[in-house]
Amino acid sequence: MVTRCPAWGHPEPSLNSQWLSLLLLLLLLPGPPPALGMEDASFPHLGESSQPPPRACPPRCSCPRADTVDCAGLDLRVFPDNITRAVQHLSLQNNQLQELPYNELSRLSGLRTLNLHNNRISSEGLPDEAFESLTQLQHIYVAHNKLSEAPQFLPRSLRVADLAANEVTEIFPLTFGEKPALRSVYLHNNQLSNAGLPPDAFHGSQAVVTLSLSSNRLSYVPPSLPSSLERLHLQNNLISKVPRGALSRQTHLRELYLQYNQLTDRGLDATTFSKLHCLEYLDLSHNQLAAVPAGLPRTLAVLHLGRNRIRRVEAARLRGLRGLRYLLLQHNQLGAAGLPAGALRPLRGLHTLHLYGNGLDRVPQALPRRLRALVLPHNRVTTLGAHDLAATPRLAELNLAYNRLASARVHRRAFHRLRALCSLDLAGNQLTLLPSGLPASLHTLRLQRNQLRALEPEPLAGLDQLQELCLAHNRLRVGDIGPGTWHELQALQVLDLSHNELSFVPPDLPEALEELHLQGNRISHVGPEAFLSTPRLRALFLRANRLHMTSIAPEAFLGLPHLRVVDTTGNPEPVLVQLPPTAPRRPRAEGP
């Protein structure tokens, strides 16, 4: 049997207008006008207009259409009277209502939308028969109230029901059952346990595509869920197991959220997900899994396994997942043997591999060739060899921040094959020199919080597409920046040299520069020629240096027509800043 997956009026004229037309006509007639109370066949009585009478609207409410009454946000404590029987859309959200009177609701038999969101309605204030007469109701919103149990009966015509953020502990067979048009049910942030959810809760409601049961007290995945489901939210419960067969009928399910539960390997088996032939998104993060689950659907595009207790990834568990695009394994317990060579090779379509916060001591070997993003910060990687990244020539993003890389252990050809790399993050390592052989395709290079003591032009040669360079929190001095270092960085727009040991503004900065961070250095003087090479500068950060009132030469900012921000806060004295008259906005020039 082949399963087909679903694809990812005008206001009426008022009495005032009738009066105006009548009086204008009377003024145009010859002779004195007849008395307003006289009967004359030429003029209609005021109560006999051919137009419909003005519609009633409850005090302080608005009625923009004949079928709409909006009483939202009026601090109402009592259900408004004088609501027209013709109303189809009634909004009472953001009030102080505590009960719904049956006699008022029963009059509104044409109601299609009832919005009671954010009131103080309790189950005692909601009669069992409250909705019996609302045979056309399609949308009901009762979220953020004080219901302790769901209404025993909701109309058969219902399409959307929102009872989220109450105190519901129990629902009933006819709350959501026997609703052939029902498509969305929201029950998150309640106090539902499995005992409060009857087995026939959705009997006769086989059009439901979205069901949210997150943030309740469920201990296992409820059985007899609608087979029509496409999105199922069960996150943030107490779920420790998925009973065998609980998800066997949900063959249209596309998104399944089980994060923040208590799932262990014993709570799942090889059949748990095997019938979910349309599943694309599976979130099992923040559980207690020690292994990748078996029997994962071949249709998966996103698999989130972060913050579990996984120690090793077996290739057999991933075999067949050729369409998987995103694999998230951050904050697990993957050590040196946690990702054996080739374990991820079956994932031929993998786009992003997220391994943040594990215990890996090297880049995983034999990664999928089509990989575009490798996220490996906060591991224990000490070495980057010549061939460690050779299998992933399409990488566009590589994040190796906060590892243990030293310059002597980064091979000069480590990045040689990465000709599509746009972003490289090596922050928080132990580098003393810029790596060699950086790809010419780079747009962003982050090297903050290393131990850089010198900059030479050779490692930056050819980086004519680099737009952002971060060198903050190193040990750089102006004398350690070699002549011509910035020469080939023709596209550089953002340069961060903050928190180094610079005593003045480095000379010959790139012409395209728009944002320059020099805060937290030892700069005590800014000369008249400091920014001659940077005519496009827009923002300059000089706070927390050693500047005094007259430390910046009056001519320093001449020729900078785009300069909008000069931040000199946190210096020993308030700094006098003189901008050229063409500058569009006065920058900050404050003292400590």
UniProtKB/TrEMBL annotation:
The keyword Repeat applies. Gene3D superfamilies: Ribonuclease Inhibitor. Pfam families: LRR_8. GO terms for cellular component: extracellular space. PROSITE patterns: LRR. InterPro entries: Leu-rich_rpt, Leu-rich_rpt_typical-subtyp, LRR_dom_sf, SLRP. Residues 570-592 are annotated as: Disordered. Residues 1-37 form the signal peptide. Keywords: Leucine-rich repeat, Repeat, Signal. PANTHER family: AGAP008170-PA, PODOCAN-LIKE PROTEIN 1. This is Podocan-like protein 1. It comes from Eschrichtius robustus.
